[in-house]
Amino acid sequence: MRSILLSGGSGKRLWPLSNDSRSKQFLKVLNGPEGNPESMVQRVWRQLNQSGLASQALIATSLPQVEILTSQLGDNVRLVVEPERRDTFPAIALAASYLYSVESVSLNETIAVLPVDPYVETEFFNVLSTLPGILDSSGAELALMGVVPTHPSEKYGYIIPDNSDTENSEYIKVIKFQEKPCESDAAVMIEQAALWNCGVFAFKLGYLINLLIDMELPIQYDEMLKQYGRLQKISFDYQVVERADRIIAVPYDGFWKDLGTWNTLTEEMNGSVVGKGWITGDSFNTHLINELNVPVAILGLSNVVVAVSPDGILVSDKEASPRIKEIVKNEDQRPMYEERRWGCYRVLDYTRNEAGSEVLTKRICISANKNLSYQYHLLRNEVWTVVSGTGELILDGQSREISQGDTVVIDRGMLHSVKALTELDIIEVQIGSQLIEEDIVRVATEWHDIVKTYLKHV
User: Fold this and answer.
1) Is 226 helix (H, G, I), strand (E, B) or coil?
2) Which of 101, 244, 308, 389 yields a CA-CA distance of 20 to 30 A from 366?
């Protein structure tokens, strides 16, 4: 079995920590097995490794998430990167074409698709591992995993079974789907043995490849990349699942939770305070998540979440917190904090001076033995001041060591990179006509390639 994990979307339900570049699955607010902070994607990847499934898994993602995925999961994770975001059917089709034409996976291989952020226990992956055998024995086109509900919820979609079929105990035949019913309707569905739809399904690779052929879409990965922009923006559910003839579902009667809002996420946090701050003892069921280096105090407030990041501040009643998505849905402020494969950066200040130039100040932290790409800019000049640590700088082919107190002037068009010999903190001031992350022309990424190809030996 091969697994495709979907990690392409962006969301603001966990604003101000989540934004267009840092979706909910990347927030390090959960406790790892050794007490270290852990994100949802790190937790799922750890569980896949423990279940022996990670080596046969790849992640379908969007370009803005490549750096943070590499940062959190390491360089060995296999990614299939969408040229642009186009919903789940195009993303799965792209991954399937990669498996078929690049990795030469058999058309008879079972492909399991799952979200990158389910909050589950190990048994979930044990049930996932049964899908290939059940798909074979049932003769179905699609096999879904459905969660046995614990209560009638209006937040989830439901898988409705064909209760006239009593031949099998391993799976149920599916007759239809119901998206987010009212609570009374959900209660009736549960009495009929309906399951929560957790977004996990499996099919034979040949099933999807033949479907792409019928749709006159490319099945070669390189050609799929070229034509990706013309694929319809549509979910896999609408394009495939609701049109399939033979669908079965395998019940998962274990722990499962969607940590998509502040009120549900805080239920799974071991501590009530993350970051700098205090909550008084007369504040019950209250949580503070603070990413800034300024203390926050919460006094006598119960059932409240306070989230603080460079992007903003949220103070909300927990039950009301899902409404934040509607409030900030049209907010287009640039992300003020981003994780990259080499470390992270935080925007400290932005202004436009009297001459009309934009001025942006960042604090950049480069992890030991990591490096920036060898790059240049077209629209801005930069000035670096080293705050702490040591590094090797290559500037227009010349190499020198930099350390605390050193200043580096980088004019537009100058090629530059730095490798951190120890953890390296830099204050970067950008000045230019337009300060955007896209103003980066990369000529090399790996340090050994930069040294071998571009370093001038005197």
Assistant:
1) helix
2) 308
203 and 141 in contact (C-beta within 8 Å)? yes
> What is the arithmetic mean of pLDDT over 341-347?
92
Instruction: Provide mean pLDDT across the span 311-340.
Output: 87
Residue spans in the chain of domains classed CATH 3.90.550.10: 2-257
Judge whether 164 and 157 are in contact, CB under 8 Å.
no
Give the amino acid at 330: N
In terms of Cβ atoms closer than 10 Å to its own Cβ (0-12, 13-18, 19+), residue 421 is middle
* pLDDT tens digit sequence for 2-59: 999 999 766 778 999 987 778 889 998 888 888 888 999 999 999 999 999 999 999 9
CA distance 167 to 160: 17
pLDDT value at position 10?
66
Q: How far apart are CA 323 and CA 120, in angstroms?
A: 25
Tokens 């008879």 belong to residue: 108
Kindly tell me the burial class for residue 363, based on how many C-beta atoms sit within 10 Å of its own C-beta (0-12, 13-18, 19 or more). middle
The CA-atom distances, in angstroms, between 107 and each of 205, 320, 431, 448 are 5, 47, 54, 39
- Helix and strand numbers, DSSP H then E, in the chain: 12, 30
Q: Which residues have C-beta within 8 Å of that of residue 280, sequence separation ≥ 6?
A: 297, 298, 299, 300
Identify the CATH assignment for 2-257 out of 3.40.50.720, 3.30.420.40, 3.90.550.10, 3.40.50.9100: 3.90.550.10
Q: How far is CA 182 from CA 146, 147, 185, 230, 256, in A?
A: 19, 18, 5, 37, 21
- Report helix angle 40-50 to 66-73, nearest 10: 50
List the 287-290 sheet strands across, edge first: 273-274, 287-290, 304-309, 312-317
Domain 342-454 grouped into CATH 2.60.120.10:
yes
Q: Taking residues 100-109, report their average pLDDT.
A: 95
Buried b (16+ CB within 10 A) or exposed e, 211-234: bbeeeebbbebeebbeebeebeee
- In the chain, list all ranges with CATH 2.60.120.10: 342-454
Single out the residue of 224, 196, 144, 199 nearest to residue 9, CA to CA: 199
Q: Between β-strands 358-366 and 110-115, what pairing exists: parallel, antiparallel or unpaired? A: unpaired
Q: What is the pLDDT of residue 354?
A: 82
